[in-house]
Design goal:
alpha/beta, 9 helices, 7 strands
Length: 256
C-alpha cells in the first residue's frame, strides 16, 4: 500500500525549466517514481541533455521547445505532450529568472520580463493543462516559489513580487479546481546550489557565509533535495494536500 502511494507509473509530467537546476532534480524524482517526463525549455541543446539524463535511467522523456510566456506556444506545448505521451497528470511550473537590482534601478522591461517568466508562465501553463487533467479525472500542479515568497530583500523587487504571487495563484487554483480532483501546491526553495545562485554569490558580498550561518542544516541545498517533495506532491500520497506552500530550505525560514 505504501509503495502505491508514491507510484507514478503511467503518469505524465510536464516540467518547465526542467533542463537544469531544481527542475531537473524534480524531473529525476518523478521519472524514478515511474512518470514519463516532458522537459520544457527554450534551450534545446540543454533540454536534449536533460532527456538523455532521464532516459539513461530508464524513463520515457521528450523535450519540448517553448516560450512559456507566450500563450500560443504554451497551448501548442500542451497539445504536443498529449499527442506524444498520451495525457497530462502533473505540471511543475519551475521556469524562472531573476534580475538583481533595487526597485529604483529596475526598468519596466526588466520588471515585465521577470513577472512574465516567473508568474505569467505559471498561469498560462496551468490554464493550458487544465482540460487534460480534468479529462483524466484529476491532476497535480506544483508551483515553484522561493524564500522570497516569505521574506523581502532589497535586490529582488520583481522576483519577490513574482514569487509572492506564485503562492497566492497556487491557492486560487487549489480552491477553483478541487472539485475536479486537481491539487495545487507550492514549493519554496531556500538557498540551493544552482547556476542562478552561483551568480548571486558573485554579485552579493558575503552571501555564502550568511546563508550557512542561518541554515540549521549547515549547507546549501542541492537539486536532488527536490526529488522527494516532487514525488510526494505529484502522487496519491498528497491527495488531501492542496493550497500549501512548503519550504525546502534546511530550516532557513524557521531560524531566528
Amino acid at each position: 500500500m505504501t509503495t502505491k502511494l508514491f507510484d507514478l507509473s503511467g503518469k505524465v509530467a510536464i516540467v518547465t525549466g526542467g533542463n537544469g537546476g531544481i527542475g531537473l532534480g524534480m524531473a529525476r524524482g518523478l521519472a524514478e517514481a515511474g512518470a514519463a517526463i516532458a522537459v520544457v525549455g527554450r534551450n534545446e541543446a540543454k533540454s536534449a541533455d536533460a532527456v538523455a539524463d532521464l532516459t539513461q535511467g530508464g524513463a520515457r522523456a521528450i523535450a519540448v521547445a517553448a516560450d512559456v510566456t507566450d500563450k500560443a506556444a504554451v497551448t501548442t506545448m500542451a497539445e504536443r505532450v498529449v499527442r506524444d505521451l498520451g495525457r497530462i497528470d502533473i505540471l511543475v511550473n519551475n521556469a524562472g529568472i531573476n534580475i538583481r537590482k533595487p526597485p529604483h534601478a529596475l526598468d519596466i522591461a526588466e520588471w515585465n520580463s521577470v513577472i512574465q517568466t516567473n508568474l505569467t508562465s505559471a498561469f498560462l501553463c496551468s490554464q493550458a493543462v487544465y482540460p487534460a487533467m480534468k479529462a483524466a479525472g484529476g491532476g497535480k500542479i506544483i508551483n515553484i516559489g522561493s524564500m522570497m515568497s516569505i521574506f523581502g530583500a532589497s535586490f529582488t523587487p520583481a522576483y519577490a513580487a513574482s514569487k509572492g504571487g506564485i503562492v497566492q495563484f497556487t491557492r486560487s487554483c487549489a480552491c477553483a479546481w478541487a472539485a475536479d480532483n486537481i491539487q495545487a501546491n507550492a514549493v519554496l526553495p531556500g538557498w540551493i546550489d544552482t547556476d542562478l545562485t552561483k551568480r548571486a554569490r558573485q554579485e552579493i558580498d558575503g552571501l555564502h557565509d550568511r546563508v550557512l550561518a542561518r541554515t540549521p542544516a549547515a549547507r546549501w541545498g542541492g537539486i536532488d533535495d527536490f526529488a522527494g517533495i516532487a514525488v510526494f506532491l505529484a502522487s496519491p500520497a498528497s491527495d488531501f494536500v492542496t493550497g500549501t506552500a512548503i519550504p525546502i530550505d534546511g530550516g532557513y525560514s524557521v531560524m531566528g
